[in-house]
Amino acid sequence: MYPNSIIQKFTSVFFAQPTLVLRAPGRINLIGEHTDYNDGYVLPASIDKAIYFAIAPRPDRICHLVAYDLDSEIKVSLDNFTQSDIAWSNYLMGVVDELQKAGYSFQGFNVVFGGDIPLGAGVSSSAAVETGLAFALNQIYHLGLSTMQMVKMAKAAENNFVGVNCGIMDQFASMFGKKDAVIRLDCRDLSYEYFPIELPNHAVILCNSGVKHSLGDSEYNTRRQECEEALRIFAQNFDNITSWRDISFEMLATIKNQLNHTVYRRAKYVIGEIERVIVACDALNQHDLATFGQKMYETHLGLQHDYEVSCPELDFLVEQTLTDSAVIGARMMGGGFGGCTVNIVEKAQQEVFLQRMKATYLEKYQKELVCYVVALTNGTEIIG
Ligand code: GLA
Q1: Distance from Cα 166 to the centre of ligand 1, integer Å
Q2: Which end of the chain has fewer surrounding CB within 10 Å, N or C?
Q3: What is the pLDDT of residue 327?
Q4: Which domain covers residue 12, as residue numbers?
Q5: CATH no. for residue 9?
Q6: Sheet harboring 192-196: ordered strands across?
């Protein structure tokens, strides 16, 4: 269906061929959750669920945007726009806004976009829309942005125009992904390393709770504020604190009574999660999947009890895997308050796993559990 349906839509709306067709994928994250905006590490990968774009420049100042899946369109002038009630358009115009603020000049464009990334499922459909458009405009208007600059523009669009104070992981993963690899990104200095992930006998499976994380945006911003507050208190008590990377559990114990209970637990989670990614990557290097999986479970417990961004459905899905010896590790993934769990499962037991999870979820919540067996793919790329 994709990208052909997108191209066909483009030709039927604009009576012309697109000059560029590209795919911008969604992402998973194996470990390192809520660490990107805390100067920690993350371990994401881009996946075979993507947003596809068909685009062409226009000689005038109009951006004609068509959201294929939503059957919705809007025309916006480059010279006069602000946030729209048509929410989806803000992800695109936010990118345009960032590019213009940074002094890049270009004319209007016609674009059709759409794809198979489930919405509100914690696999970053919004980041894919942002990185896809940044990549497309850079290409059709020869703006000369580096890949990392495009990532930063896409993230800034989400922060400034959409109003979610997200970190850089999603846009980074959607842009920098590589087939069959996960990427360890150091969010403090943006250095990164690809880890080929050799899982001949295992599958990465997402279980979508079906709970849309709409509550998440305001709670997400609250978590950020709580972390900033904790960091300020650390800096008041210790010398040379520039980020969470300078903080240890010993230091946390020393200032425990200066933090309220909530902020204390947030700090405990962040310190633990930064350490866990390092241990998990070492384990991956040594093909020690058991340790890797154990770290995923520890992350879930931290997100559930200390960072408090899980929900009963996600906890249930993770709990169901605890007694299943075919599951190496499982945890909630992404911002939280709904969306998917990520599971590493023995391939030989994949079908049994899927059937069992679906059946127990249906019994407990009278809701169908949609699962995705994902492949790791290249990041944003031209396909036509
Ligand atoms: C969302 C944000 C990311 C990251 C994750 C949690 O996906 O967009 O920047 O903070 O939540 O790890």
Answers
A1: 6
A2: N
A3: 98
A4: 4-198
A5: 3.30.230.10
A6: 41-42, 181-186, 192-196
